[in-house]
Sequence to fold (506 residues):
Amino acid sequence: MEHNGRRTFLGVCLGGLAAAVAAVTVWPVYRYLAPRSTRATAARVDIPEKEIPEGEAKFFEFNGASAVLVRKRGGGLIALSAVCTHLGCIVQWEKDKQDFLCPCHGGHYTPDGVVTAGPPPKPLAKLPFSVANGVITVG
Amino acid sequence: MALFKRLIDWIDVRIGAREIVAKELTGYLLPRNINAWYSMGSILLFIFAMQVVTGILLLIYYVPDADKAFKSVSFIMNEVPFGWLIRTCHAIGSNMMVLVLFLHMLSVLFMNSYKSPREFNWLTGFILFTLVQGISLTGYLLPWSQLSFWATTVATNSANAIPVAGPYLVEFLRGSKLVGPPTLGRFFALHVALIPLGMAAVVGAHLFFLQRTGVSTPPFGQKETANQWQGDGYRYESHPGGIPFFPNYALEDLRSIFIYLACFLAVVFFAPNLFFTSDSFLPANPLQTPAHIKPEWYFLANYQTLKIFPNEFIGLSVQGAAMTFLALLPFIDRTRERHPLKRPLFMICAVGGILLWVGLSVWGHYS
Fold:
């Protein structure tokens, strides 16, 4: 019994040591491979108002993803995520039709981001923005 | 445990796994007087695996473009979490691989294990030795530092000494008249693809020959130390009553690997710049040659040999002759005696050769 007890104790010690070695090997490799930062691009973006004429859209990087500002016909401004809610492709602005098209699987959205056709399950996410002194600040 | 046994049973009835284990591991017997030097091959396999893993990790951030290579290496060293560790392990690992390879070759040499019927083992080992030198040389350029650039310039330029074809050979090696972006492209391809694949294939062949011929018996502690091989037919050298490879010698191998790791990590953590000079921290500048550019320590003897001969071609020929002699050693040395102390001429030549190599290296370092 004593012999078995000693064997078990040494086995547990060895197992613990092996786990420690594995941990100090895996941790640096994990940290090396882990994405450096999800905020690769600014969480606040300033865009001059004059860059977005009526009926046009401007795409930009926001908080590590693609976003779009649209000035609807009639003057209304809206900031949306440009990531299609179906499978993550980036939507394109169709100026002549005044809507968004996702070229991947034919999803259509209104300038407000509401789904009008195709497979997207949800509207495009709205982003907060403010306008002051001719500058639009998203975020 | 019952589940584990069922899994093993499931595999065993399909591929006969227990039979392989009995034949190749627990029933694979090694000579009773085997020593720690027989672990060098296992350490080398471990180093090769580590070089492959750290090399793949470096590929994630390294950019093989002359304008970006140095910046990408600086980024790995300074910005990426633990990038310094991965890169230092790779750079020091390459030096350690050469060092352990030397020890492996020396142990085979002094135990006279290269003799018949193990010519194939020696030849494949020798090919691996040249491939390791090749992978070290090509990897040296990749950081695109002043040291990389000018050491590669000097190394590739030595081919110039070959009559007639020399100048074209230099241009072919570099991909251009001078070392430049085309050199980086071809050295990168050689370093990360062609040479590692070649090494894996030759390692496979080396192990295959070992498995077919059997492990040699060390000549130490034996009454009869003459080579018993007759050459009349194929015979596997078995060791009845010997030590099982698994678990007995596998644990010895593991111990040797851990001793190696202790030495390796001591360099990584306490002397990380041992193999770097100040020129390796400056980006390559093709218009400014730094003073006293020297190759890596294992090429210092070659470097000094080229310097001491008045004609570079003679220097190159002497090195070629020495390498050919070493490659063909089992075919030249046909004596049966395997104990080095019973072979005074062999000992004088071997020790003299090593001292000459060390002397030339030291001379090369201080010249």
In short: The beta strands of chain A are 45-48, 57-62, 65-71, 77-81, 92-94, 99-102, 107-109, 115-117, 129-132, 135-138.
